[in-house]
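Private note to self, pasted from the team thread so I don't lose it. Backbone tokens:
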């Protein structure tokens, strides 16, 4: 079982334009789609589509359209009932895949709701393989709320993943190693928030086939107590770093449709591999394959297994000597069906 927490869920509407977005202009939409959203919700959607058990925990009214959409998609969920609708996010995509997002902050969360969410997570975490704490926090939640949750989940047998950014991410890191989760999934910019490196430079180096800067930055988090760091690098692929090694996966070239949910699909792919007992390099391969599949889909669509081509992803083991550049050695993978 993979349990996800989405403290600030959303109903995501994506508008796919026929041309470039221009301020002040009237635009023609090719398509408009609406899906249940929020990072943890997206992870649960991908895991469910892959035929594995998932449970999405979130605050919402029973009659919210988001909850109806989850039920329609067969995603198991548990709610902390609120008296307000979830926020409505808007994404605009252009033909070249450029994505513009408008995300309202969401309604303020009450202390009683946060306590109920934490209790619900702990109750289901007792029988879960993984608990993933995902996304932004709603107004009213303390910045260190994820850090507090990680501490509370430590005595339980589940592993804990965190995918967040900005103040909640910094608050989590401020408590390392006490608040260090089993897995963190930053993108390049989020890794930069924690290490002071240049996120754009990390992606540019990875595009050139050089994962060394990303591996060094991610290893700094491992040295501070994080079990595993999965860094998504957009179209360049991803890096995985543990205490025992590092790997770089290069993503295949695709026609980019939308970046929405690609990182969430990557996290879902990695967790699916983990519960299947796959090796770190195979788990990284699966993560990048899922993220790539999501980026090739329009709007907020997320991939099903038959849309994921993991054998198109190449993985190299990265060796970092004490001095000098990193070197990478390809890891051979036989064809494997998901």
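Design output:
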């Amino acid at each position: 079982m993979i349990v996800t927490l989405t403290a600030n869920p959303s109903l995501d509407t994506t508008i796919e334009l026929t041309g470039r977005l221009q301020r002040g202009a009237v635009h023609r939409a090719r398509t408009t789609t609406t899906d249940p959203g929020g990072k943890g919700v997206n992870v649960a959607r991908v895991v469910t589509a892959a035929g594995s058990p998932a449970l999405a925990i979130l605050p919402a009214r029973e009659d919210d359209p988001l909850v109806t959409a989850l039920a329609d998609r067969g995603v198991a969920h548990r709610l902390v009932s609120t008296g307000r609708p979830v926020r409505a996010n808007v994404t605009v995509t252009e033909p070249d895949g450029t994505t513009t997002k408008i995300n309202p902050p969401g309604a303020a969360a009450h202390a009683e709701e946060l306590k109920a969410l934490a209790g619900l997570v702990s109750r289901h975490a007792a029988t879960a393989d993984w608990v993933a704490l995902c996304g932004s926090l709603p107004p009213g939640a303390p910045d260190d709320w994820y850090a507090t949750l990680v501490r509370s989940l430590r005595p339980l047998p589940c592993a804990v993943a965190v995918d967040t950014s900005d103040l909640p991410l910094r608050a989590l890191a401020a408590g390392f190693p006490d608040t260090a989760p089993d897995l963190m999934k930053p993108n390049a910019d989020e890794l930069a928030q924690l290490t002071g490196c240049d996120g754009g430079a990390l992606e540019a180096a990875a595009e050139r086939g050089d994962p060394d800067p990303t591996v060094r930055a991610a290893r700094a988090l491992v040295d501070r107590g994080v079990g595993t760091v999965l860094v998504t690098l957009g179209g360049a692929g991803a890096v995985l770093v543990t205490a025992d090694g590092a790997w770089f996966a290069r993503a295949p070239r695709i026609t980019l449709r939308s970046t929405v949910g690609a990182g969430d699909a990557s996290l879902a792919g990695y967790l699916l591999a983990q519960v299947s007992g796959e090796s770190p390099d195979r788990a990284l391969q699966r993560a990048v394959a899922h993220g790539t599949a999501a980026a090739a889909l329009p709007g907020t669509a997320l991939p099903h297994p038959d849309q994921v081509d993991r054998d198109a992803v190449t993985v190299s083991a990265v060796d970092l000597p004490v001095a000098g550049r990193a070197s990478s050695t390809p890891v051979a993978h036989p064809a494997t069906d998901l």
